[in-house]
Each structure stands twice: as structure tokens, then as C-alpha cells.
Amino acid sequence: MKIKRFSGSSTRDVLQQIRMSLGPDAVILSNRDVNGEVEIVAAIDFDEQQCTEAHATPTWPGPLQAGDLSPTPEPQVSSLQRTVATPETSVPVVSSVAPTSPLRSELQALRQLVEKRWGHSLSGKPAKDSLTDMGFSVDWAAHLVQRCPEADWEKTLKSTLEDQIGLSSVSLEKGGIFVLLGPTGSGKTTSIAKLAAAQVLRHGPHSVALLTTDTYRIAGVEQLEIYARILGVPLEVIRSPEDLLQALNKHDQRPWIFIDTIGMSPRDPRLGEQLQWLAALGTEAHRFLMIPAGLSGKSLPTVLAPYAGIPLAGAILSKVDETPAFGGVLEWLAQQHLPVAYYSDGQKVPEDLHEAQWENLMRLLRTSSESTAPGSKAQNHSHHGA
For residue 310, what pLDDT is reported? Predict the structure, then answer.
């Protein structure tokens, strides 16, 4: 058995060193923090019986140097227990029976790294269950799992979403008229402020104008007035199609014009009237659909039905930080072939609005699946509150 000590700034860096030096069959013998760095002792040609016997009477002669491959002395520790990974991982781990808190965290990080590398859960959680935990419907999850091996479901999910949804090709870099549509409470006003603030920071307040048709909601105009005053940009209140055209002509020298709209019930006739105003702008306006990430089930197609036939530049997922799973929204977008443009994960203006990237969206989905797993913090919290 050859043993070697590795250290680095993070577990991932050290694991990469181990893989490069000892290969994929290396065994993790110990893991600890040393002077702010992660230190891992790993072995190749691991003999569990030999390790157990050596541990029973630890008489190693001296500390390991960076290049040594011979056994070294370690202070006596509690009995070792080997946690055997699945055959595909080839990364067996040896840990103490009652690991300290830092060690437990490092082992959890190691487990997540293995799961990410091999595309399935070491706990044996079926792919279909993981998908439904993410918010996808049972039928959609079953169909996806049928198309791929169990270990490849995350890769298949990512490629499916990239193919059926994709990312919006409309960029704010060139300026234009940008309209935010969506149901009540979807976060349109806050998102308008975030988009406007980003351009004001880049190009100055003279480059942006705000318009709003939200004259029905209590304090709707007042909220946007506060943002406009902070940003130093003009705000126009739109009550008719004539107001809309006049405001656009008044500010036609400003490259970025953002239009906030009122959220209404899909059965409210005023919604159709407002959509007709905006339809008159033709292709000159880029329309984005705001969708609360927590919208799911039968309510999702009902609430979003009025917007399905409108030419849309993309979707903005709001309140991603407030929902445990948003696979249902992605499933609806896939059915509509509507690309994602942005997602928001907080109230800060403009920091908490991000351009969509599938790597980040997959990470958020993975987090939502873990948060609904038995024993997770989210699960434990919900049980305590019941």
C-alpha cells in the first residue's frame, strides 16, 4: 500500500491532485484542516485488513513529506470504518465513526463531488424521484428517464432543457423597448427596476426612461416612482394607447425604455385590452414574460394562458430563492419552446437579477432536489413547523 499526503485550499483542489497522482482507485484515509488548508491522506493499493491492523497498533516512524510514499506516524484516532462507494465511483472513503464537524463537512463535499461526476445519487435515490422533487410532473420525469441510463439522467435533463427551451437571443446591450408581462405578484416592478438600474450604472440616467400601465394596483405607481427617483430617470404613467405613443415619442432619444404592466386575472377583460396596446408596437418592442418560479400544477397553464399566443422574447424566472422547486415552470417553457432570459433570486437592485445560464439553473435545480430529500434541513424545518 502506498500512502501520500496532499494539501490545498479546497477539497476539490486536493481531490484533483489525488486523482492526477494516484489515479481513480485511490482511497481517502484521513481528512482535516491544517492552518486554513485542507489536508487529505490518500492511499493506492489499499488493503483494509492491513489498515485496520496498523490502526490497532499505530507505530508509524515519522511524518510524511510531500513526496514520500511510505507510511507515516499519525496521532492515535478512533477506530476506522470504511464507507464503500458504488462500483462506478472507484473512490472508497475511510472515515472515523464519529467524525468531527469539519470532517463531516468535507466528507459531504466529497460525496457531492462524486455524485456530480457520475450523475447519480450515492444514496440510491431513483432519478424519477429526483426529478419530481425538482418540480417536474411524474409523466414528464418518467418520459425523460426512459430515454437515458439511470446514471446519465442529469446530463439528459440539461441537454433536453437546452434543446426545448434554450436561452433568449434578445440582449439589452443594443437598447430598445422592453416590456415586462406577467401575472399579479410575479415581480415585474422590481425586475423593471433591476433592469433599468443595470443600464443606468453602465450608461447613465440620461439613457433610460420608465413607463408603467399599472394604474389599478394600490401603490403600483408609487413603488416605481421611488425607483425612478433613486435612479434619476423619468417615469410616465400610461392610461391609454395614446399615452403610450406620446411617451415613446417623448423619450425616443433614450436608448433603453422599460415598460411595466399590470398583473391581472387571466379572465379580466382589461388584460386583453392592455395586451392589444402593446401588440400595436409590433416587433419594435421586446416582450418578456415574468413567471414566479413557484408557480406549478394546474394553476400554471391557467395563469399563463393569456400570454401563450403573444410574440415573446423570453421568460424571466422570478423568486427562485423563495421556492423549493421550479421544474414545473421549466416543463411549461419546454412545451411552449420559450427561452429563458433572466432569473432573480432576491430583492436587491440590481444585484439579484442574473442572465440565465444552464449551468447555474441546473445547480439551483439540484439544490431544490436536495432540500426536499429526507433528512435535509428544509425537510426537518417543515416537520418542526407542522
Answer: 79
User: How many other C-beta atoms lie within 10 A of the C-beta of residue 97?
Assistant: 9
State mean pLDDT over 57-61.
42
Q: Which three cell numbers stand for residue 186?
A: 410575479
CA–CA separation, 323 and 223 (whole Å)? 24
C-alpha angle 373/377/378, rounded to 5°? 70
C-alpha radius of gyration, the chain, whole number: 27
> In the 8-state DSSP scheme, what is residue 209?
E
SS3 at position 278: helix
Cis peptide upstream of residue 350 (ω within 30 degrees of 0): yes
Average pLDDT, integer, range 38-52: 69
pLDDT at 305 over 70: yes
Q: Domains in the chain, start-ordered, CATH in brackets?
A: 2-118 (no CATH), 176-356 (3.40.50.300)
Count of residues making up the chain: 386
The rounded distance, in Å, linking the Cα atoms of 144 and 157 is: 7
Q: Give the residue among 186, 174, 170 at the shortest CA–CA distance from 255.
A: 174
The 8-class DSSP code of residue 2 comes to E
Q: Considering the chain, what percentage of its residues have pLDDT values greater than 90?
A: 31
Q: Identify whether the C-beta of residue 161 lies closer than 8 Å to the C-beta of residue 359.
A: no
Q: Are 290 and 182 in contact (CB under 8 A)?
A: yes
Distance CA 29, CA 2 (A): 11
Note the Cα 344 to chain centre separation in Å. Answer: 10
How far is Cα 4 from Cα 41, in angstroms, rounded to an integer?
Answer: 6
User: Whole-angstrom Cα distance, residue 224 to residue 202?
Assistant: 20
Q: What is d(CA 167, CA 357) in angstroms, rounded to the nearest whole number?
A: 8
β-partners of residue 37 are: 34
Quickly tell me which residue has 410574440 as its cell.
311
Give φ, ψ of 31 to 5 degrees.
Answer: -150, 125
Task: Give the CA distances from residue 71 to residues 16, 42, 48, 51, 303, in Å, rounded to whole numbers and listed in that order.
Answer: 22, 11, 14, 11, 66
Separation CA 247–CA 110 (nearest Å)? 57
- In tens, the pLDDT along 244-266 reads 999 999 999 999 999 998 877 67
pLDDT band (50, 70, 90) for residue 18: confident
